[in-house]
């Protein structure tokens, strides 16, 4: 599918972004379709706060387009989320409170994964669960050693 077609078809853009995510590496097209059925798209405007540091955590996100910054009370801005990047995965898996706030800097389109739906998918399709959890561990380890 062409880049122009992806931009006009949010589903195609979401699928393309999923396939680029290390978190979902090693899955086949049927697996991606199953993952897309549990996700939703969210449009956010500049200035919106997606979540605040200390909030309960009920899902994770992939930034499809736009600009979102993560910041903490202690350190200020800690990360500029890039299109195609996943964030909030610690809370989606471990149900811990948000460790940072997510502030929308430009209009943004996100793919959102609700915790309970994600867990249901992983339980229903253990092979997806194994690959995703293994990939999450790798992502978190890489972040810790930075």
Number of strands: 6
Per CATH, the superfamily is Jelly Rolls
Structural class: alpha+beta
Q: What's the gyration radius in Å?
A: 15 Å
Mean pLDDT: 86
Explain what you see.
With 146 residues, the protein is of the alpha+beta class. Helices cover 42% and strands 31% of the residues. Helix 5 (115-124) crosses helix 6 (126-145). Strands 1, 2, 3, 4, 5 and 6 form a six-stranded antiparallel β-sheet that branches. The protein has one domain (3-145): Jelly Rolls. It has helices at 3-8, 10-20, 29-37, 89-94, 115-124, 126-145; strands at residues 39-44, 49-51, 59-72, 76-81, 86-87, 101-114. The longest helix has 20 residues, at 126-145. A hairpin with a 3-residue loop joins strand 3 (59-72) and strand 4 (76-81). The chain starts with a helix and ends with a helix. The chain contains six helices and six strands.
Write the topology of this structure.
Layout: H1 3-8, H2 10-20, H3 29-37, E1 39-44, E2 49-51, E3 59-72, E4 76-81, E5 86-87, H4 89-94, E6 101-114, H5 115-124, H6 126-145
Antiparallel strand pairs: 1-6, 2-6, 3-4, 3-5, 3-6
Helix pairs in contact: 5-6
List the main descriptive attributes of the protein structure presented here.
146 residues; alpha+beta; Jelly Rolls; 6-stranded antiparallel beta sheet; 6 helices; 42% helix
Quickly describe the structure.
The protein has helices spanning 3-8, 10-20, 29-37, 89-94, 115-124, 126-145; strands at 39-44, 49-51, 59-72, 76-81, 86-87, 101-114. With 146 residues, it is of the alpha+beta class. It has one domain (3-145): Jelly Rolls, CATH 2.60.120.
């Amino acid at each position: 599918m062409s880049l122009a077609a992806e931009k006009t078809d949010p589903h195609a853009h979401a699928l393309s972004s999923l396939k680029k995510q290390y978190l979902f590496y090693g899955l086949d097209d049927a697996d991606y379709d199953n993952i897309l059925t549990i996700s939703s798209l969210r449009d956010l405007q500049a200035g919106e706060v997606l979540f605040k540091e200390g909030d309960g955590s009920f899902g994770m996100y992939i930034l499809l387009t736009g600009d979102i910054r993560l910041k903490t009370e202690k350190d200020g801005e800690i990360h500029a989320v890039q299109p195609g990047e996943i964030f909030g995965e610690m809370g989606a898996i471990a149900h811990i409170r948000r460790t940072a706030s997510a502030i929308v800097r430009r209009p943004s389109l996100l793919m959102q994964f609700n915790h309970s739906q994600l867990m249901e998918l992983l339980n229903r399709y253990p092979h997806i669960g194994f690959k995703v959890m293994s990939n999450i561990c790798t992502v978190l380890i890489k972040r810790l050693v930075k």
